[in-house]
Amino acid sequence: MDLVVVGGGIVGAAITYRFARSGLRVTCLDHGLARATDSAFGWINFGWQEPEAARWLQMSAVDEFHRLDDELNGALGIDWSGALTFPGPDGIEQLIDDLVKQGCPVEAVGAAQIARLEPDLVNVPDVAMFARGDGAVSAESLRESLLAAARDAGAQVWEATVDKVAQDTDGTVAVTSDLGTVRARNVVLANGSDIVRLAQQAGESIRVDSSPAIRYQFAAPKCLSRRILSGPDYEIRPSAPGVYLGAEDFIAHDGPEGPAGRVGGSINAIARAFGLDGPLRVTDIRVGFRPMPQRGQPYVGPLVSSPRILVACVHPGVTLAPAVARRVLDHVTGVRELHAIG
């Protein structure tokens, strides 16, 4: 076996697909429980909200998504309509100028252009940031499509809970799960915050926070946004005709109503922004726990103590997954080494 991938979320699925597509023997072991991927908003972007330490992956992320979609003949269902962001009136133009200098493909748009892009928006800001290259995708469908394509290319995907990972003296790695033990030349830990436990077995201390986020779905009586809209009080995108997705950070001290109360505030702001008379009907609320590398940049690379065991823990996972998969493949096949972690 060339590779065992622990974790079948979006990062693990992308790695499994990339290795199988390259003709290597790969097995993915996934516990089959709730994943952060299945509650993700699905915004593919150039990472202007992320720390600069992630830019080495972020700036290739959108190109890797286009390459991936071309390989699968457009089957991923990505909407490349771009994103409009207006976090507030203070500092938006300076933010845009700074991002352009860093190489992010964004531009300032005024009220007239915003109204043309979003004709149903009633409360139009004076200026917004337009990232015309951003995309949106169903993260859950993307994960399933990648695993299906990986299987078609020869990968094995099993539902299993991994108990132990250890590099042996012969250089191979033993992965023990409730299905037994499998050995491979390399292992990638892509199982979110549970990476911490398995890395400790190899003698490495990795710190990963678990950050909750809300994704909700609602029905609207008329057309609202044509693309991703990220304002000071809401973040939404179209999902299907008459159906939209929204995203919010979940804060533990939000009060007794928790996620429902936070979504209610966003729903009211959306209704005001689009001039709706009645309340919007929320049809689904999910809370996903995103793995967040605590050191402020992605964990992508081999462990110092066990170089055949690699870690792939990033945020945002949906955006970076194809780029991470490419770099992991390059490392394992000797094209370009990743920095060791530990």
TrEMBL record:
Domain FAD dependent oxidoreductase positions: 2-328
Keywords from the UniProt entry: Oxidoreductase
Superkingdom, natural source: Bacteria
InterPro entries, alphabetized: FAD-dep_OxRdtase, FAD/NAD-bd_sf
Keyword Oxidoreductase annotated: yes
Any Pfam family hit: DAO
Entry protein name: Glycine/D-amino acid oxidase-like deaminating enzyme
